[in-house]
Amino acid sequence: MNPIFPVTPQKAEALRQRMARLGINEHDLEESFVRARGKGGQHVNKASTAVQLLHRPSGLRVRCEQERSQGLNRYRARQLLCDQLERQIRGTASVVGQRLAKIRKQKRKRSHRARAKAVAEKRARADKALRAPAKLTGDD
C-alpha cells in the first residue's frame, strides 16, 4: 500500500525511490498520530496532526510536527526517517552527514597559530590603509 501525500507526484515518486534504495518497506513502518505541540492554533490543539513513525527492523523512531496538515507531516516524517537511516548506514558520507560535518567545522575554535595569522593579516591591511597618501584639496 503506497500512501498518497499532498505533494507533487514527482516528489512522492522521489521519496518512494529513496525509500526503496534504503530498503525501507511501508509494511515495516508503524505509524501513529498524536497531537502536535506549539504554534498552529486551534487546529493543532484539536486534531492529531503530528506523526510518529517506527521502523521496526532498525528500531528508529521519528516524530514530525513541522506542518499543520497530517498528510504533509506523514511525508516529512518519511523524509526524516530516510535521513536518519542514511546517516546510520553511510555515516559522514551521507549528504546530511556532510552538512553536519561542515557546520561542526565552522563552529570549531581556531588554533592559536591560525588566530595569530589572522590578526597579523588584519594588522598588515590596516597599516596599508594608514600609509595611503592623503588627498589634497584646493582649499589650502
Describe this structure in words.
The chain is α+β, with helices and mostly antiparallel strands. The protein has a domain at 9-94: 2-Layer Sandwich (Double Stranded RNA Binding Domain), CATH 3.30.160. The protein has helices at 9-22, 41-46, 70-90, 95-107, 112-130; strands at 29-34, 50-55, 60-64. Strands 1-2-3 form a 3-stranded antiparallel β-sheet, with helices on one face. The model has no long low-confidence stretch (mean pLDDT 87).
* Biggest sheet layout: 3 strands, antiparallel
* Helix proportion range: 40-55%
- Top-tier CATH class of the domain at 9-94: Alpha Beta
What is the terminal separation in angstroms?
A: 87 Å
Tell me the strand order in the biggest sheet.
1-2-3
**Computed Rg:** 26 Å
Topology:
Layout: H1 9-22, E1 29-34, H2 41-46, E2 50-55, E3 60-64, H3 70-90, H4 95-107, H5 112-130
Helix pairs in contact: 1-3
Concise overview:
The chain is α+β, with helices and mostly antiparallel strands and 140 residues long. The chain contains 5 helices and 3 strands.
List keywords for this structure.
3 strands; 5 helices; Double Stranded RNA Binding Domain; 3-stranded antiparallel β-sheet; elongated; 140 residues; single chain; alpha+beta
